[in-house]
Structure formats: C-alpha cells, structure tokens
Write a structure and sequence with these properties.
By secondary structure, this protein is α/β, with parallel strands linked by helices. It has 10 helices and 22 strands. The chain has an 8-stranded mixed β-sheet, sandwiched between helices. Strands 9-8-7-10-11-12-13 form a 7-stranded mixed β-sheet, covered by helices on one side.
C-alpha cells in the first residue's frame, strides 16, 4: 500500500483556522448595537476593534476609545459599524475643522502629531502584510510633516448640479449621489474655493444649463480651479456635456470683472454619463495658455490637464529628499520614469550629467520639454512611451542609466517595468510611492537585487489617511 504523509499545520495555521471558524460562528446583524474598544487604526484611517474576535471597522474612532456602535454591514470576515456615542474618548481626539458628512478628511479628528505617527505605521502594516526581504530591519524614518497642515490643496474639482431652485457645487456624501453644497474645506486653498463658488453664482444668474445626470441633459458638469502657490494666479476649467458652452462670452466677462485672479479659462468636453471627470478634448477660451508654479527654484508651466502634486509646499520637500537619496554626480545618466511634466527630473538635472524621461501622455511630454527650455536646462529630454520599452531600446543604442527615479500611480510599478529595472540594475534607484500597499508588493521583487536603505514618509495630504514616501535603494 502507498504511504501517505500526515498533513501537519503550524501553530499560526491552526490559529488562523480557529479564528476563521470563530468568525463564522459570530452571530451579528445589521442594526445590532455593540460596545467596542478600539485597538488601532487601519490603513484607511478607520478605527479597528473586535467583537468576539471578529474584526470590526469603525470610521472616526481612535485607539483607546470605547464606543457604542450600530452595525452597518456584515461580512463573513469582518463587521462594519458607525459610532452612536462615545463611552470613553482618546486624549488625542480634537474637534475636526471640516464637515464630516462629506468625507475626505478621515483623520481630521486626530491631533496632527499623531497623524504623522499613523502614517509611519501605514507603511509598517503594509510591509508586515507583504514581507519583502529584510523588512523587519528597514529604517522607517519619522514622517516629515507641515508647519501648517491646512489650505494646501492647490486644485479644486467639484461637480455642479441643480438642487431645487438653486445651484449646488461641492462634494457627494460617501456612497451616495447626494451633493453637499460646497462647505468650508480646511485642506483646500482658499482661492480655489472662492473661484468655484463665484463661478457657480455667475452660472446661476446667467441661467446656464447645468448637467442633469438622470436625464443626461444640460451642459456644465464640473468646475475645476487650480491655483499657483507662487503667483496666486488661478486656472479655471469648465467641464461640459457638449461642444457648445451657452453664454460663453458673458461668462468670461463676468469672471474677468469679479475674479481678477483667474488668468486662464478653458472648456473640457466630456459628453454623456461617465465616471471620468475629464474628456479627451480641451478648448482654450480666454487668457493665458498656462499658469506657472515654482518648485525648488524651477518654473513649471501647467496646462489644464498637466499633473502636479496637490501640495506644492510638501512637493518641494519631497524632491529635496529625492535629490538627497539619489546623491547624483555629473557623470550619472538619470531616467525619470512616469515623468509627467518633468517636475522631478528637472529638479534633479543640475546634479546629473544627463536626464531622460518618459510618459505615455503626449501633452505631458510636450510640457516637460517646454519646461526644460523655459528653465534653460539643456541636459534633459522627454519622450512619449513606456519606460519598459524605451529603457531597453536606449541600452541597445549604448545609453545605459546609472540612476533611476520612479514615481508611479497608486497601482504601483507594472510587472514589465519591475522586470526592466531588475534586468538593467541601475546603480542608484529611488522609488517615490503614493500607496504603501503596492510599494510593499513591488519591494518583494526589487529586493532580489537591491537592499532598502530607508523609507522616508512625507505627509503630502494632512488630515487624510493618504500616505506618500521615498525609498532609497542600494544595489547589492
């Protein structure tokens, strides 16, 4: 007879199976009232407690608090609940500055010093989940915060709708289509709020047709205002449901008269029902083609769709940390992947011998090269394309990068680019991340070739749970 090996389980596996069975045995229903002690914060800023060992997520709760909650959702593995009343409050709780019904400031009730500690813990939690090589010994540096963690968002992007007999522009309540007319938002630059509110009033007085989502009718969908921190100039974009913008001339005249800070007005066409804010076509209506932002002494021209970090003050700190981490010499050839309008690569160009960047958005690449010319930077060139395609092509032509900086979207590095980095092995590598989870996942692969020197968290989004950081690598 064949021999069979007896299946064995580690203690952790036995505990996991036991906990899973206990979770399934927990009887709880939506509407039930529970008393929960909060143990820690989750990566989205929510309080985490346990009901009979079943993990329970509770927004607006802080570690150490005892809260009376009502169950709002039940999942086989977890419970969701909301606070009815506090039995015991944390000494770190403060009165939030913002209207909590619209969301967007998940940590507004937490002292700022503790927010910074939380963001260091976010990356720690992500590393413990993915367990990349040597993660227990990573140098996780204290989060770099802001002196004034308010008014930092340089861009406002709000839907506009008819509500009864008036126009509302603002934010939707979470998980709903109920629009809250623009409340005070402590994180938003005051100039953007002023412009959006005033334009709302102008459109209402001129009786410009406003988009109706149910009927897919009307014209103006969204108002977008971006301010330059360095000049105070504002760029305004009206997103519309058609090519035609009724009463465009009167709208422009009123804006000129009432909002002298608005120096550029554009129309973006985004027809029909869609979850996307921007359409493909943008028409310039009036004023300057760009506004200009200054970062670390470099000037960057920003067209309406150009990407720029939402917090210019902390962006300067972010790029200063990148400069320090890369430690470039004038002999180094640098690749700026996910380059956007060139803000990172051009900030590093003074230290490098040559910079080459790439982006898949042609308009961004055009702006990057224009920004290089405007700053009289002659050792930087930007190309349309994917890094995983261009880098091997350049290597075949004899141009091999000594250094690389990557600043991917929240989805992290694609598999193809991870493989390209591991194949080309640039000596100096810096990863700027806006998502701790995808960073930790990418580190599983990158640490096959590189050691992690340190991870420096930087608070780009005070009052929120969003994390940003820089990783410095050393090639083994």
């Amino acid at each position: 007879m064949p021999e069979y090996k007896k299946k064995t389980y580690s203690q952790n596996q036995r505990n996991a199976k036991s906990n899973q069975k206990q979770n399934q045995d927990v009887q709880v229903e939506v509407g039930d009232k529970l008393l929960i002690t909060i143990k820690r914060l989750g990566i989205n800023g929510e309080g985490i407690g346990y009901y009979k060992r079943k993990i329970t997520f509770i927004p607006n709760a802080l570690p150490g608090e005892v809260v009376d909650v009502v169950v709002t959702a039940v999942n086989p593995k977890f419970i969701e609940a909301k606070i009815r009343k506090f039995k015991q409050k944390s000494p770190d709780r403060i009165e939030p500055l913002d209207n909590q019904e619209v969301g967007g400031t998940e940590l507004g009730h937490l002292r700022y010093e503790k927010q910074l500690e939380f963001k260091q813990d976010v990356i720690r939690q992500a590393l413990e989940k993915y367990r990349p090589r040597g993660y227990e010994d990573y140098d996780l540096r204290p989060t770099i915060g802001m002196d004034d963690p308010t008014g930092y968002r340089n861009k406002a992007q709000f839907p506009i709708r008819q509500q009864g007999d008036h126009l509302a522009v603002g934010m939707y309540k979470p998980n709903s289509h109920e629009l809250v007319d623009l409340p005070e938002i402590s994180t938003q630059h005051p100039a953007t709020l002023k412009v959006v509110r005033t334009v709302r009033d102008i459109l209402e007085e001129l009786e410009v047709p406003i988009y109706d989502e149910k009927q897919n009718s009307g014209i103006v969908k969204t108002l977008i205002a971006r301010v330059s921190e360095s000049t105070g100039d504002v760029q305004l974009t009206l997103v519309t449901n058609s090519q035609k913008l009724p009463k465009a001339r009167q709208i422009i005249e009123r804006i000129n008269a009432e909002l002298p800070e608005v120096v550029s007005i554009d129309q973006n066409i985004n027809k029909g029902k869609t979850s996307l804010v921007w359409g493909e076509e943008t028409k310039h209506l009036w004023g300057a083609d760009y506004i200009t932002e200054t970062i670390n002494g470099k000037q960057f021209m920003l067209s309406p769709r150009a990407f720029l970090q939402l917090n210019p003050k902390q962006t300067e700190r972010l790029y200063q940390e990148a400069i320090k981490a890369l430690d470039l010499t004038h002999a180094d050839k640098l690749v700026d992947a996910y380059s956007g309008v060139g803000t990172i690569g051009l900030s590093l160009a003074d230290q490098a011998g040559e910079v080459r960047g790439m982006d898949t958005v042609a308009d961004a690449v055009y702006d990057a090269n224009e920004n290089a010319e405007a700053n009289e930077i002659e050792n930087a060139d930007y190309f349309v394309g994917e890094a995983e395609v261009l880098i091997p092509e350049w290597a075949d032509q004899g141009w091999v990068a000594d250094a690389m900086v990557v600043d991917p979207p929240r989805t992290g590095l694609g598999e193809a680019l991870r493989d390209t980095i591991l194949d080309t092995e640039p000596e100096k590598l810096v990863y700027i991340s806006c998502n701790a989870s995808t960073l930790a996942r990418d580190l599983e692969d990158l640490t096959e070739v590189y050691d992690v020197d340190y991870i420096q968290s930087i608070d780009m989004f005070p009052q929120t749970a969003r994390w940003e950081g820089i990783v410095k690598f050393t090639r083994r």
